[in-house]
């Protein structure tokens, strides 16, 4: 119906202005006003949609997930995720970007991945220690992301998987994918309402993976309470010292858009970002960053992280 109305207006407008005897009669003025209104609304919608596609959610704490047991010694097995990564993640790609071979994931592997996620869903995570919780949420986020890709594969980019509710939402991040302790959760809930506001650690951005070339590498092993600190540190170093994290092009500094999207997590300004980058950069790169006082550009590659 909408398309038919639009086509009718366009046709009438064209006839009006193309007629050799056309003048700005009342009818013609109405057609012009209708076209201007349609074009204005279309431009507004495009601006909102484009802005929403790149806007990063704020860290907004969901208080329920603050609960934990600092005395707990319980651990969670992520063995199934470990096996999945061993079989399907290529960590030796010449690009330096870890690639997941979605095409080669068999039906039984998908079933095992689903079972692993279902097992995590059934865990009363509020009864665990903080480190165990951090590892749990990171692994759950990454496993869910891979599951979403597999359910829609072949796909060129996670940005093409528009399953989030709402007309202006893109991608899968706002879709409720699981239920933990009776609460339905989305990927955005896990990252921006649990991980970021509770741990307040910028290295979280190197841990959660969005299945894209521009994203920090998907870790080759599951996060655990024992290796959490090691993997977070390694993730930061690997990304910052790779061109998609930080690079100089014609003496101009380019950084990942992660740092601009989540500037509040990296010191709140360019100075804070540069200080964070220097902390994990090699000496050569750190020296260049320290002496840099030019403009900073940013980019991001949303292509799927497959071979």
How much of the residues is beta strand, in percent? 5-15%
The total number of structural domains is: 2
Radius of gyration: 24 Å
On the 0 to 100 scale, the average pLDDT is 89
What kind of oligomer do you see?
Answer: single chain
- Going by helix content, strand content and strand pairing, the class is mainly alpha
Task: Tell me how many strands there are.
Answer: 7
Shape type: globular
Strand order within the widest beta sheet: 5-6-7
The stretches of 5 or more residues where confidence is low (pLDDT under 50) are: 1-10, 40-53
Give the count of helical stretches.
10
Helix amount: 40-55%
Major sheet size, sense and barrel closure: 3 strands, mixed
Order of helices and strands: HHHEEHHEEHHEEHHHE
Distance between the termini: 43 Å
Structural summary, described in words:
The chain has 10 helices and 7 strands. The chain starts with a helix and ends in an 8-residue tail after the last strand. β1 and β2 form a beta hairpin. It has a 3-stranded mixed sheet. It has a two-stranded antiparallel ribbon with strand order 1-2. It is globular and about 50 Å long. With 307 residues, it is mainly α. 30% of the residues are buried. The chain has 2 domains: 2-54; 63-240, no CATH class. α5 runs antiparallel to α6 (187-199) and α9 (270-280) packs antiparallel against α10 (283-290).
Question: What's the SSE blueprint?
Answer:
Blueprint: H1 2-18, H2 26-54, H3 79-88, E1 89-90, E2 99-100, H4 107-121, H5 130-152, E3 178-180, E4 183-185, H6 187-199, H7 228-240, E5 246-249, E6 252-256, H8 258-261, H9 270-280, H10 283-290, E7 296-299
Parallel strand pairs: 6-7
Antiparallel strand pairs: 1-2, 3-4, 5-6
Helix pairs in contact: 1-2, 4-5, 5-6, 9-10
């Amino acid at each position: 119906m909408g398309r038919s109305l639009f086509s009718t207006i366009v046709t009438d407008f064209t006839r009006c202005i193309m007629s050799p005897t056309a003048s700005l009669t009342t009818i013609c003025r109405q057609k012009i006003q209708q076209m201007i209104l349609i074009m204005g609304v279309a431009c507004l919608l495009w601006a909102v949609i484009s802005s929403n596609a790149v806007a990063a959610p704020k860290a907004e704490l969901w208080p329920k997930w603050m609960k934990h047991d600092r005395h707990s010694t319980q651990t969670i097995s992520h063995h199934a995720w470990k096996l999945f990564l061993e079989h399907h993640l290529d960590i030796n790609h010449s690009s330096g970007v870890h690639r997941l071979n979605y095409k080669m994931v068999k039906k039984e592997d998908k079933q095992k991945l689903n079972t692993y996620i279902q097992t995590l869903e059934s865990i009363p995570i509020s009864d665990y220690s903080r480190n165990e919780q951090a590892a749990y949420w990171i692994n759950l986020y990454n496993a869910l992301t891979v599951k979403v890709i597999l359910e829609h594969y072949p796909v060129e980019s996670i940005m093409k998987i528009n399953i989030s509710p709402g007309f202006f939402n893109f991608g899968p991040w706002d879709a409720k994918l699981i239920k933990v302790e009776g609460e339905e959760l989305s990927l955005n809930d896990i990252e921006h309402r649990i991980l970021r506001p509770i741990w307040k650690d910028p290295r979280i951005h190197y841990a959660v993976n969005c299945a894209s070339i521009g994203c920090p590498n998907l870790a080759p092993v599951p996060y655990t309470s024992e290796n959490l600190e090691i993997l977070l540190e390694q993730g930061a170093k690997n990304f910052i010292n790779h061109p998609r994290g930080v690079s100089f092009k014609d003496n101009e500094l380019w950084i990942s858009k992660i740092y601009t999207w989540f500037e509040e997590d990296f010191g709140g300004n360019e100075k804070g970002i540069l200080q964070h980058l220097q902390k994990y950069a090699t000496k050569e790169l750190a020296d260049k960053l320290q002496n840099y006082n030019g403009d900073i550009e940013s980019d991001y590659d949303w292509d799927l992280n497959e071979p």
